[in-house]
Specification:
With about 450 residues, the chain is an alpha/beta fold. It has 3 domains: about 70 residues, no CATH class; about 200 residues, Rossmann fold, CATH 3.40.50.150; about 130 residues, Alpha Horseshoe (Serine Threonine Protein Phosphatase 5, Tetratricopeptide repeat), CATH 1.25.40. It has 19 helices and 10 strands. Strand 9 and strand 10 form a beta hairpin. Helix 6 crosses helix 7, helix 12 packs antiparallel against helix 13 and helix 16 runs antiparallel to helix 17.
Length: about 450
């Protein structure tokens, strides 16, 4: 980094809690130069001074920087495993706990363009029917003001509904001029606020906080600050749901870890003086089978040849979902060592590296997966998204173009991905876009 890159990186870290390393700073500054007229007019020194001022104009410039640093992309009912846990376990338990007060508070932190909080409102509507005697409030916050404005409008293209059943779309949205508008019965229960998780004060009295796929932007000290705020924001026995493997090692000691088959959940425990008192409403959680013992030799090395590769890969996925990155990485590496052509194990290894912040390593692994199996579309989707995350639009476009060619010239491949549950039209739309993120 040169001195300007280093100083603006430090400023961003102090203001937003987001670290910008030497690998990424060039991409970010290129994007800022395209969006900001001010950075072109001022000297580097004056631009840094301008950003350091606490003025309305400086805040407007920060909004431009935030829009460059933050990728606002999500979709309705995202992450089927976590949605199932919310729908069948967490929300019903909260409803049972709150039958006397009839008051529920939920915070969607890092809500992007609103798909997550509206999804939660839909689940609540189906479980509780939003009866008049219940006081329901969903707070939705994001640092990106443009995303908040779009969320408040509540209009979405069909790309935001990939994987959403048609009956739910018809029930909760109104189609008008190729846009789906959230019905007022859902919109009225969500409040949107522009908010910086790192620097602003915390909110209070929440039964559930969701902060999924947000911590990937922060370093560990910043994550710890935010998690401590979440701890103070939750009621006793309140729940925290974050993205897979994002900050498991930093969760405050006041949280109980609940390991489920499809995700991991955290519950704020009661103060010590209340330990031993049982809640009348018990959380009904699905039984979670622990990964079976892994066969080891006398040197504690995994004996892949004694167990089916497919079974070991499933164990690796289980460990990854539980945030046990080391165990998951060890298993995938042993599989690859035994069979270097196992593209499924390689792909999982790439996901683990990406989740651990080793982006360049992940890129090389995804490239190798495509080399081994040119028809494995998941690698095109993920690699393209990763290039977009790094603001490398040209490489992202190349990967999408290659993925589109595979899809358009192989009818059998389309059927394979239909059987996997993908919408072929959505895949074609993604690969055809000028830029995009598949998350």
């Amino acid at each position: 980094m040169n001195s300007f890159q280093e100083n603006i990186s430090k400023l961003i870290l102090s203001k937003l809690g987001i670290p910008i390393n030497a690998e990424k700073i060039g991409y970010y500054l290129d994007t800022i130069n395209k969006k900001s007229s001010l950075i072109k007019k001022l000297s580097e020194e004056k631009y840094l001074e301008y950003l350091s001022d606490n003025t309305t104009l400086a805040n407007e410039e920060w909004k431009i920087l935030i829009s460059c640093l933050n990728i606002s992309e999500t979709y309705f009912l995202r992450d089927a495993g976590q949605i199932e846990i919310l729908e069948k376990n967490i929300i019903p338990h909260i409803i049972e706990q709150k039958r006397s007060s009839k008051r529920i508070r939920i915070w969607s932190a890092g809500c992007s363009t609103g798909e997550e909080p509206y999804s939660i409102a839909i689940l609540l509507s189906e479980l509780l029917l939003f009866t008049a005697d219940w006081d329901i409030s969903i707070l939705a916050t994001d640092i990106n003001g443009d995303s908040i404005k779009q969320a408040m409008i509540g209009e979405y293209m069909d790309w935001s509904f990939r994987g959403v059943p048609e009956d739910r779309i018809k029930k909760y949205f109104t189609l008008k001029k190729n846009l789906y508008r959230v019905n007022d019965s859902i919109r009225s229960n969500v409040q949107f606020i522009e908010n910086n998780l790192f620097t602003t004060n915390y909110f209070k009295e929440f039964d559930l906080i969701l902060c999924r796929n947000v911590f990937i932007y922060f370093d560990d000290p910043s994550k710890k600050i935010i998690l401590d705020k979440f701890e103070r924001s939750l009621v006793d026995n309140g729940y925290l749901l974050i993205g897979h493997s994002e900050a498991a090692h930093l969760i405050p000691s006041t949280f109980e870890t609940i390991q489920l088959q499809k995700s991991i959940l955290y519950r704020k425990t009661l103060p010590k003086k209340e330990i031993g008192l049982e809640s009348k409403a018990k959380l009904s959680l699905p039984a979670k089978e622990k990964p079976q013992a892994i066969p080891l030799n006398q040197n504690r090395q995994i004996l892949v040849f004694k167990t089916n590769e497919k079974e070991i890969l499933e164990r690796a996925r289980e460990f990854a979902d539980l945030g046990k990155v080391v165990e998951a990485r060890n298993l995938t590496e042993e599989i690859v060592k035994s069979n270097p052509y196992n593209h499924n194990a390689l792909f999982l290894k790439g996901q683990i590296e990406e989740a651990s912040g080793n982006l360049e390593s992940a890129i090389e692994i995804y490239k190798k997966v495509i080399y081994l199996d040119p028809l494995f579309l998941e690698s095109y989707l993920t690699l393209s998204s990763l290039y977009s995350l790094l603001h490398n639009s040209s490489e992202s476009a190349k990967v999408r173009k290659a993925g589109l060619q595979c899809l358009l010239h192989d009818e059998n491949l389309k059927q394979v991905y239909k059987d996997k549950g993908y919408h072929i039209e959505s895949l074609e739309s993604f690969f055809s876009e000028e830029s995009g993120i598949w998350l």
